[in-house]
Amino acid sequence: MKLWSMRPAVAGMVLVWLVSVTMAASGTMMPISARSSNAAASRANHESARVSVSSLSVSDRSALAMLQAEAGQQPQMSEQAFKNIQVLKGIPVDEFLDTMGLISAALSLCCGDCHTGAGTSNPKWEDDPPRKRTARSMIQMVNTINRGNFNGRHVVTCWTCHRGQPRPAATPAIDRIYGEPVLEPADILPPATSGVPTVDQIFDKYIQALGGANRLASVTSYAVKGTSIGYGEVGAGDAAELYARSPNLLATFVHQREGIMARVFDGRNGYFMLPLTVVEEYPRTNGAVEGAKLEAEMLFPGRIKEFLSSWRVSYPVSLDGHDIQVVQGAGAQGLVATLYFDKDSGLLNRMIHYHDSAVGRVPTQIDYSDYRPVAGVMFAFKWSYGWPSGRQEYTWTDVQANAPIDATRFGAIDGPVGQMGRDDLPRRFGMFDPPLQRAHHVEAVRAFAAAAVSHARHHEQPD
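User: That's the sequence. What structure does it adopt?
Assistant: Structure tokens below.
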């Protein structure tokens, strides 16, 4: 997708507020409490711990990031990557950019609405125009409300009041009072008390609808080709490819005119790359990488019951004219996922997963349709992948099951990182400055860059 093609209301562009959520005046960060420190330590030392980070303050998440670094993960912090960061310091780059997307979506604003020169060849991200200064005050206000009334949990967010408008409406419109209700389900759904099947019954029907447990177990990889078209775009779209290997490896590439957009989960780490943005590629951290892991696992769902914990069935809903059974579960580091299964077919129609950020939960929604059998297993040939920073519509045209896949598609996970020197990489892969990083993190980024370079070379060769 091309970010500049999106209408302002959904332009949750990663750039959008880039310096605007430089936000929240200096001195608003809280000291780390003993409880949150213990929770962070537990997460760093026990990957399977099911602990929510939604109640952690900015400084607490900074401590969590430091503990993760000690455990072998070294994410780049916001103040290392961006200019004029005043309050949102000590949070990883991906969380900072997710924060930009949420604020942009809540106010229906784009980059140029807040950043001097955004969209030109000479942006001045460090400038402090009035709207950016107002944004800092608003974040400070929201943080104060949540600390004083909800123990720091993100109960009140930008979306709570703005709902897609730069200025919140203070008075209900008569047409809204007496018109068709607009229902927006809560992130955390209540469990149904009666009249619904059990979690096991819904999952068992899903496995059977896909082809049965034995056939699912027989498929260990997918090599997929098709097209992707971004929100607001017209035309045939861009060439897209997906590679997946059991149990949880996934790489998606879209060949845009400006370069390759990539999402990769290598079984442990997740990375995202988008051309022509301030930060073109970066690792996913905390709950975001847990979401990437879940997306990979869901392509091989034979063990779906084990993917998350605390599964519960909520009340049925209607989706595109279909009766839907709703199941929600919780994962590590604050991940929450809601799965929507067609009551009649048993197939998965939608998955929404949420991870925490400095200003609230970040949603990612994937809609699945046009199921067809591939090697005896039902595969969705149409996906709609949406998150605050954009949406892509994927149409898969060639799906090969059990195809051999080069390990470099997933970042050379099956062997040591290649010996490609950093100076040999194209500049577009050079987001991270080695002086700011520990050696192992630089190597991780090199692996991702090498995977993308390898992928581009494969793509240029005839089949």
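The chain has two domains: 3-170, 199-460.
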